[in-house]
Amino acid sequence: MTEKNTSADTLIRLSAAQLAEKLRAGDVTAVEATQAHLDRISAVDGKVNAFLHVNAEEALAVAAEVDAIRAAGGAEAEALHYLAGVPIAVKDLIVTIGQPTTAGSKILEGWHSPYDATVVERLRAAKMPILGKTNLDEFAMGSSTEHSAYGPTRNPWDLDRIPGGSGGGSAAAVAAFEAPLALGTDTGGSIRQPGAVTGTVGVKPTYGSVSRYGAIAMASSLDQIGPVTRTVLDSALLHQVIGGHDPRDSTSLPEPLADLVAAAKTGNVEGLRIGIIKELHGEGYQAGVENRFNDALELLKEAGAEIVEVSCPNFQYALGAYYLIMPSEASSNLAKFDGVRYGLRVLPEEGPMTIERVMGATRAAGFGDEVKRRIILGTYALSAGYYDAYYGSAQKVRTLVQRDFEAAFAQADVLISPTAPTTAFPLGEKLDDPLAMYLNDVATIPANLAGVPGLSLPGGLADEDGLPVGIQLLAPAREDARLYRVGAVLESLLEAKWGGPLLAQAPDLADAATLETQEAK
Amino acid sequence: MSTDDVLSFEEAMEKYDPVLGFEVHVELNTKTKMFSSAPNVFGDEPNTNVNEVDLGMPGVLPVVNKTAIESSIKIGLALNCKIAESCRFARKQYFYPDTPKNFQTSQYDEPIAYDGYLDVELEDGTVFRVEIERAHMEEDAGKLTHMGGATGRIQGADFSLVDYNRAGVPLVEIVTKPIEGAGSRAPELAKAYVAAVREIVKNLGVSDAKMERGNVRCDANVSLRPHGRERFGIRSETKNVNSLRAVEHAVRYEIQRHAAVLDSGEPVIQETRHWHEDTRTTTSGRAKSDADDYRYFPEPDLVPVVASREWVEELRATLPEPPAERRKRLKADWGYSDLEFRDVVNAGVLDEIEETIAAGATASVARKWWMGEIVGRAKVADVDPGQLGVDAATVVELSRMVEAGKINNKMASQVLDGVLAGEGTPEEIVQKRGLAVVSDDGPLLEAIDAALAAQPDVADKIRGGKVQAIGAIVGGVMKATRGQADAGRVRELILEKLGVTA
Question: Which residues from chain A sit within 8 angstroms of residue B95, using beta carbons?
């Protein structure tokens, strides 16, 4: 390994905040930082498959622009965003001009968006080079990224295991040091659960905190774009870039964002009441997950937080309600993919060439099984005669879940639970058992139903398998700042205990076999 | 195409009682579309007034047009409706290529306006109250053009072209409650109702209200029941009847057709019907049942529309005078007879006469000019009287010239032609064409002498006491003076000359 590569290896392991400081200090250029990550992608993504598309030329051009501005100095250099020149990966559910957006589906293969998502506009305004688009379960439907039409993403901790989903690509890219930052979307846990199983940080902001304009909708009332990073502070920094009101999203909150970065730097949790949700741990949770969860509680208690127990009795119905509301909205949101205006168009092999048959053939060929499963489920749930029993009842449960949160937040400032019931499971294990797959989201779904923010951060490695465990923090709607405050404190206590970031313990991907050789096994 | 049997209208009425219902779609004339910032403009190149939202691109979200909400509230208020304090949009789901998202964003169980009524005046002045069930907001679909078939319909077409310019244009759909008791006046009421809705939205300024452009479109529901029965019969829905005349004819035809079906002992099929202007008949569309499953659910991408009472009252205060009340007021102010006023209304010159009176003419003079001179010319030119090119000021100027005796009525008519021909102001035309009443008796006496000399036998008759023969002499003088003489004065001078007292 040459000297240059060693320094590149250091560069890619920096947090976004550290990299930003080095860029500002002139220790490194944005082009060097961006190139280092592009090189890392070339080196390891053949094994991880985190990226569906890499956009080296554009990323380097943006980086060069930042370097030029910084070199010229003056007002324009002063006005550069703190994260200018820090590269980022974007989940391929979020539309971008200049590179394809597939949503992980064959039905959008080769499609280029004519417009940028609001969050992408904001990344561009901050002059953050976009490295490329990351893999996901088709239309974000899944918990393992195995439902991508472009092959699964692998977990950098164990390439035979899933990286979580649907945002496995973004989480794996960040965990594998292919990008310091990434964007994800979270409808039922698609940012937090991949964060948990890859040892990274993921945040689902308050519903409405980040504009959804340009995120291909799965379930409009649940979807939320959020940060995927390696540190809590990085998530706060990225949330601050992408968040805030957007007139193009009617559900976007009107008020300005709180100072999330300051919250991440508060440094204490003294006197905060932290509520353990009785229903979200214990039975059904892997022992190693439970142990790391208890360790986190101990550390918070030692740091001066008050640990209380709260009960959310209606959470037991949350998963069932979620699997009615989400597919109902998805069945409607995905109706537009019909081969008429864009994307794949498949003509029927025989018989009359009517519009119904072209739409049918296109959707039959373009959608994968999990997407079809949810469309059928949602169509059924919204049908006349079933609506009240299914969609209607699910909305009532949703209200009950919201009330549970209100009651819980009357007793606690922040709630805490494991993010996922297990560590990363082997690829293929749950592919034929959708219900087992859905159970992965049992702890993350309530936050989406209620619109409250949730953050997952690494809690250590499970004793039995040595794989990352995620700790989830939940706060009342619009109180995202509390998550960053508590998360940053817990993170620093844990890292002190580990003697550094958890990801420092991840295996070196350079030693791992390539996907091709693995598949040959 | 098979022809349906029909009963005569009279026979149908003898046997059955019609129940009507209307869904009128009004396209709003907002600058931008219902949920996007694309322009709402009619008649542009296909697929130019569209953006990513109108095309249902992946990732897009709708944003409600505030002006469209205001317009909808105004329509609701003008129809005497209650305005919902909060209401939501819903998705009406069906796969069809004119609907880019494969669902239409509409209102379902929470219309913005509900429980209203409209008093409709029939031609003889009878007022019929039509109850309004609701007025709700929705977006229009794109326009499909089916190519290659003989009928222009999708059946038999080789392919279809779609223009999404209209996709997302704001619509308000006004739905009546079942209209009972119209009896044999049902067709007339149908026309009058749609005309009244059209007039209201035009008067509010919220729609261009041009039926020929589809700004106002009517679906007419008709059912029959035997006299004395409470329960409604099975209805048909004739879609897109897009002129006032067609609404009347379609309702009449459907009554006759239903009556024939019922008479034959068959049940009426609940279905949509297509209206054919050329044959003035309907044909079967698609079977439609109340159980059509559109899988409605609340639109999760939009927040509820909240109409505060203050806002509603502010809007109410901006409403123009309702057309029916205005007519009542004007008729009383002008002192026209029922017949005179109805003629003015039917001729469509209410606004013009009001303006002319405001410009200084008396009510009777204004009516005389518009009804006597301008309406007829407009008919020949095949334009609305208001579009002919005569304004109120011109009419007032002309009438003043006549009153002052500068020109006579015949000349005034010529001057009007001059104005329409673009020759200038009335004053200029009088100068240019040399039109002025000849009041100097000198030239007149010469002309009279000549006329008398030309017709000595007539002169003798007048001298002999047959004064009625004077017309021939007067005519001769008028001819000689090319109509510029004052006929009354000519007559006086002739009698004087011949020494006859009338």
Answer: 335, 338, 356, 359
Q: CATH code for B441-498?
A: 1.10.10.410
Taking the C-alpha atoms of residue A418 and residue A439, their distance in angstroms, rounded to an integer, is 13
**Separation of alpha carbons A200 and A193, rounded Å:** 10
Backbone angles phi and psi of A343, in degrees to 5:
75, -160
Q: Tell me how crowded residue A313 is: count the other CB atoms within 10 A of its CB.
A: 11
Cα A251 to Cα A477: distance, rounded to the nearest angstrom: 14
In chain A, what are the domains? 3-313+404-520 (3.90.1300.10)
Do the Cβ atoms of A138 and A368 come closer than 8 Å?
A: yes
Q: How confident is residue B72, by pLDDT bands cut at 50, 70 and 90?
A: very high
Q: Low-confidence residues of chain A, pLDDT below 70?
A: 1-6, 511-521
Report, as an integer, the average pLDDT of B363-367.
93
The three-state (H, E, C) secondary structure of B61-83, written as one string: CCCCCHHHHHHHHHHHHHCCCEE
Helices (H), A345-422: 355-366, 369-381, 393-411
Interface test with B, best of A334, A341, A391 (most B CBs within 10 A): A341
B286 touches chain A (CB under 8 A): no
Which tokens sit at A342?
């864009």
What length does chain A have?
Answer: 521
Q: Does A396 touch chain B (CB under 8 A)?
A: no
Q: What does the angle CA A193 – CA A194 – CA A199 come to, to the nearest 5 degrees? A: 105
Residue of chain A with shortest Cα separation from B104: A332
* Mean pLDDT of all residues in B17-29: 98
Separation in Å, CA of A325 to nearest CA in chain B = 11
Sketch the domain layout of chain B as residue ranges: 9-316, 323-433, 441-498
Residue type, B107: Q
The DSSP 8-state label assigned to residue B500 in this structure reads: -
Q: Which of A42, A86, A116 is nearest to A230 (CA)?
A: A86
Side-chain-side CA neighbours of B231 within 13 Å: the count stands at: 2
3-state helix, strand and coil shares in percent for chain B, rounded to the nearest 5 = 40, 20, 40
| Bridging pattern class, strands A306-310 and A273-277 | parallel
**What confidence category does residue B292 fall into, taking pLDDT thresholds of 50, 70 and 90?**
confident
Mutate to test the interface with B, among A248, A322, A326, A353 (most CBs of B within 10 A): A248
ipTM of the complex: 0.95
Pairs across A and B, CB distance < 8 A: 99
Residue B115 three-state SS: strand
From its phi and psi, is residue A205 left (phi > 0), alpha (psi between -120 and 50) or beta? beta
C-alpha distances in Å from residue B78, one per residue of B86, B315, B325? 19, 11, 12
Give the closest of B95, B100, B295 to A383, CB-based.
B295
Phi-psi region of B190 (alpha: psi -120 to 50; beta: other; left: phi over 0): alpha
Distance from CA of A244 to the nearest CA of B (A): 16
